[in-house]
Design goal:
This protein is an alpha+beta fold and 262 residues long. The protein contains six helices and six strands; from the N terminus they run αααβαββαβαββ.
């Protein structure tokens, strides 16, 4: 008789089983036993194939899972890059708006300053003998030199000639004198009267070149102004300095006692 153990493991008992069948069994029994062995082999082969397909299916699923994870990582990187692009664009827009606001603010300040400078001022009438620039002949030909070392008159005249030579001008000086109280910390301004106003204007136009001079970089030239004009000029320079600090990229300068936008 065939047992379940022998049928469950036909490969192990194949030879012995056939010898037993050929010795003691009939042909029908041999055929029946062979059929059972074949069926068991088929079941075993089918189970093996199923296991193999299952392994392949698991490997395919793992591969697809890895591909999905990689694609998800790529999408995350793309999202981060898009977010950074949006942030950079917003920062650029904010910087542009800030710069525009600063320019508008600076322009408004210039406009207000110029309107205040050009608007007529109503005050007490001046006496007939009140000194004004028109009533003081020669002031339009005067200039004040600041920062020139204070020594003797002869040395001052020589230094003044060197200053004019630095500006490529040879004006004729009529008078020169120190003004103000003596101060040990800094030299007093030097009031210089020239023969021609055209020469004075030429010197004032070239005075900005002194900042690049090795000898006269600390010297400053100014027209001879009244105290009220000096006060207005000081306020104008203070406003110009503030506007330039608020809008460093702008071009602002003083011309004809007004702040101009370049």
């Amino acid at each position: 008789m065939l047992t379940n153990d022998s049928l469950a493991s036909p490969s192990k008992h194949w030879g012995s089983y056939f010898r037993h069948c050929l010795k003691d069994r009939t042909t029908s029994e041999i055929i029946e036993a062979t059929s059972r062995i074949f069926l068991s082999s088929m079941k075993l082969a089918r189970a093996t194939m199923n296991n193999f397909e299952t392994v392949i299916s698991v490997e395919n699923l793992e591969k697809q899972l890895r591909e999905c994870k990689e694609e998800l990582d790529r999408h995350r990187v793309n999202v981060i890059e898009l977010q950074q692009t949006v942030i950079n664009h917003q920062k650029q827009q904010l910087s542009t708006v800030t710069a525009s606001v600063q320019k508008v603010k600076a322009y408004s300040t210039v406009l207000a300053q110029n309107c205040a400078a050009t608007s007529p001022k109503v005050g007490k009438p001046l006496p007939v003998n009140h000194p004004t620039p028109v009533q003081q002949p020669g002031r339009e030909k005067n200039m004040v030199v600041f920062g020139l070392p204070e020594t003797t008159d002869r040395v001052a005249k020589t230094t003044l000639d060197e200053l004019f030579e630095e500006l490529n001008e040879k004006p004729k000086v009529t008078t020169m004198k120190r003004i103000g109280e003596r101060n040990e910390k800094r030299p007093r301004p030097l009031l210089v009267s020239l023969e021609k106003r055209a020469t004075l204007l030429a010197l004032l136009r070239k005075a900005r070149n002194l900042k690049d001079s090795k000898q006269f970089s600390a010297v400053y030239l100014s027209p001879d102004l009244t105290p009220s004009e000096l006060k207005e000029q000081k306020a104008l320079r203070s406003t110009l300095k503030r506007i330039r600090s608020e809008d460093p990229d702008g071009c602002y300068f003083i011309r004809n006692n007004l702040i101009q936008v370049g």
